[in-house]
Write a structure and sequence with these properties.
CATH architecture: Roll
CATH class: Mainly Beta
Strand order of the largest sheet: 6-3-2-1-7-8
Oligomer: single chain
Amino acid sequence: MIKLKIKTGDTVRVIAGDHKGQEGKIVRVLREKNKAIVEGLNIISKHVKPSATNPQGGIVKKEAPIHISNLAIIDPKSNEATRVAIKEENGKKVRVSKKSNQVL
């Protein structure tokens, strides 16, 4: 499993696919599949059987995972998509924006 440079709570922009150019916050990262669920993006309609929690059943809209290669972290300073470097500061590894050199 590779080390991912995105975390839950990061603001990202979709750089490829159907939702290209849209932005959102990461809700969950699926490390084993190299995918992330982004708030309000890649909405799918899922057919749900009636159950105790949902007695009516029906069609539910929910976010589907997007591959992390199609996501770019947004630089907090310039508000543009940026790549991420990992540097060591005070003996601790931190993520740094490549565009503004600012700690994420």
